[in-house]
Every structure is written in C-alpha cells, then in structure tokens.
Specification:
The chain starts with 15 loop residues before the first helix and ends with a helix. Strand 8 (about 115-120) and strand 9 form a beta hairpin. The chain has helices at about 15-25, 65-75, 160-170, 195-200, and strands at about 40-50, 55, 60, 75-80, 80-85, 90-95, 100-110, 115-120, 125, 135-140, 145-150, 155-160, 170-175, 180-185, 190-195. About 15% of the residues lie in helices and about 40% in strands. It is of the alpha+beta class and about 200 residues long. A six-stranded mixed β-sheet has the order 3-2-1-6-5-4. Strands 9-8-7-12-11-10 form a six-stranded mixed β-sheet. The longest helix has 12 residues, at about 15-25. This is DUF1285 domain-containing protein. It comes from Paenirhodobacter huangdaonensis. It holds the Pfam family DUF1285_C.
C-alpha cells in the first residue's frame, strides 16, 4: 500500500457551472455582499461580456437570462479588471467595454428637479445623481459613448436609442467655466458636449 503524494494532486480548474452553483447558494441568504468577499484568485475563465451586453462562455452566447443576471450579481471590479466572486473563489473574465447596458430610461420632473431612472439589461434600476453619475466620452471621430454608474465602480453603457431620447431633453448650463449641453438628475448636472461645439455638428 503506497501513500498518496499530495504534490501530484491536481487542482480542479474553475468553471462557470461551479461558480453559478456557489453564487446560487450565496443568493439564498439575500443579495450577495460581493464587496465583503475576498477569496483567493483561481485564474481566468473563458467568459466575455461584449459591448452590446451579451455574455459569452467558451465562445458561445449564454442564452439563459436568469444565469446572466446571476453572474452579473457577483461581478466585481478591482484595479481595472473584472472578476466573478463567490465566498470561496475569484475568477477573471473579459469585458470589452462596460459590463452592463442601460436599455431604457424613465424621465420624471423637469429642470434641476428632473430624475432619470435607468434600467439595465440585467435588471438593475438606478436613478442618476450623486451616487450614480452619468459620463460621456467621445472617440476621435466625435462619436459619444455615454455611461451611467450602477454599483461599486460598475457602469452601464447607455444604448443609442435611450441616449438619443435623452439628448432631446438636454438643456444648456454652465460647467467648469463653460456652457455645456447636458442632463439634470436629482439636482446634479451631467455635461454632454460644450455648447461651442454644437455649431459644428
């Protein structure tokens, strides 16, 4: 009878199935407190979130919406990298742009009292304001990419149809010494584009 050599034992690679099972178990106790979990890093898995919000695993789209929402609930951003985190493991995934997409926005009120409430493709609902800021970046060709903060550094790309609707209700206001076209929500003004540049569009 020979003794087992522990050094020859292989560590099972993390899988989407195993992570989903651990996340489901954690969910039974309420919303997962991802910000409190600090498990060991177990490597990267072949999972990617495309710019349109579609999740892929092993090169195949994840078609089950409940599973996508489950993974989204345990997503964590650390030092510019994205991880799926459970109480016992942390695995790296790829995100092409933002992890979520804002697919709709409900507008209530007007002026500085206006409120913009966004809904994401994974079911998050947030109202833009001090804790959920809107930012707009622009590519070299001037194409805007608008985002809204969802939670703990995770953002949603505001989809084109929603952004165009918001641009229609944008108003001018001073911002950092210049006049900008932008959006009000919960008393905060979010700049979109300098008024001086509008004449060239």
């Amino acid at each position: 009878m020979t003794e087992t050599d522990d050094s020859q034992k292989t560590v099972k690679a993390p899988s989407a199935e195993g992570i989903a099972a651990a996340a489901t178990q954690a969910h039974r106790k309420g919303p997962p407190p991802v910000h409190l979990w600090n498990p060991p890093f177990c490597g990267d898995i072949d999972m990617e979130i495309r710019r349109d919000g579609t999740w892929f695993y092993l090169g195949t789209p994840i078609g089950r919406a409940p599973l996508v929402r489950l993974f989204a609930s345990i997503l964590k951003l650390e030092d510019g990298k994205y991880f799926l985190v459970t109480p016992v493991e942390k695995v790296g995934i790829r995100v092409v742009d933002a992890p979520f997409v804002a697919v709709d926005c409900e507008v209530s009120g007007s002026g500085a009292d206006q409120a913009l409430t966004f809904t994401t493709n994974v079911g998050d609902v947030v109202t833009a304001g001090p804790e959920h800021r809107i930012r707009v970046t622009r590519a070299a060709d001037g194409e805007p990419s608008p985002y809204v903060h969802i939670r703990r550094g995770l953002e949603a790309l505001i989809d084109r149809k929603t952004f165009y609707r918001l641009v229609e209700i944008a108003t001018p206001a001073p911002h950092e010494g210049r006049d900008w076209l932008g959006l009000w929500s919960e008393g905060v003004f979010f700049p979109i584009i300098p008024m001086a540049e509008l004449s060239g569009i």
